[in-house]
Amino acid sequence: MSSADIHLMFYARPDRSITIEQRHAEVMNNMSRLGGPLGFAGLELPKAPSCGGGLAALYSVRLPVRGLRFLGDYTYRGERYKYEDRASYDEHLRYGFKISNKSVDYKKVLNECLPQVAVAFGGYKAVVSYDLYSLNYSDRPSRETSIYRKLLETPGVDVNGRNNIYILTPAQFWDGELCHRALGYGPDEVIARLQGECASAERLLDGVYLVLNDDPHLSYEDFVEMNERIKPILGLI
């Protein structure tokens, strides 16, 4: 059996009042205060990237952990460019590694490192993607699939984006705005509902950080069970 691919993804709503150069300086300053494996302390930091002729400015940082990949991006700030209220217009931090990588402690990443990066980045959402589980969960031939497709076709719904939560992942951060828009209530209510139902549920920034399952050998069946058990508690369909 091949080793599962893990992706850590952080999302931020672009602030047009802050240039890419200013935003990059802020992110690098914050990330340089964090140690490994996800932080940039002691590493050579890249200069602010340029969008060139495109709508995204990409950059990378050479991390010292073999097999741990990183890519960051910012969104074009031009006045004529019209942003839409959708996650496809977000800026990101992305990490990737194999679950078999002995240099990356998966449990530590979920319980300690990921929330630290979420604070440093200052975004509104962070998720952990375990192999193709999220994709398989969305595409499975069941009642859930019809719900997913209806959501995709519903005007104004940004599925798994800025105003909707459809898939729960092993760990995630939601800011206060995402909680209210996707759930209809705030972070404190999320924590109250999940007491005793997951590994941890704690306040982070103005939102909530959840660890639902930090098992490095998570099976797809356990992933589905996690979603089907926790989603009704949160009022999610």
Question: Summary?
Answer:
With 237 residues, the protein is α+β, with helices and mostly antiparallel strands. 32% of the residues lie in helices and 20% in strands. A hairpin with a 2-residue loop joins β7 and β8.
Q: How does this structure look, described?
A:
- The protein is globular, with a radius of gyration of 18 Å.
- The mean pLDDT is 95.
- It is 32% helix and 20% strand.
- The protein is of the alpha+beta class.
- The protein contains seven helices and eight strands, in the order βαβββαβααβααββα.
- Strands 2-3-4-1-5-6-8-7 form an eight-stranded antiparallel beta sheet, sandwiched between helices.
What's the helix-strand series? Answer: EHEEEHEHHEHHEEH
Total strand segments = 8
Oligomerization: single chain
Low-confidence stretches: none
Please give the largest β-sheet.
8 strands, antiparallel
The separation of the N and C termini measures 32 Å
Helix content: 25-40%
| Estimated radius of gyration | 18 Å
What's the arrangement of strands in the largest beta sheet? 2-3-4-1-5-6-8-7
SSE topology:
Layout: E1 5-12, H1 20-31, E2 56-59, E3 69-75, E4 91-98, H2 106-121, E5 125-130, H3 133-139, H4 143-153, E6 171-174, H5 176-183, H6 187-193, E7 200-204, E8 207-211, H7 220-234
Key features?
globular; 8-stranded antiparallel beta sheet; 237 residues; 8 strands; alpha+beta
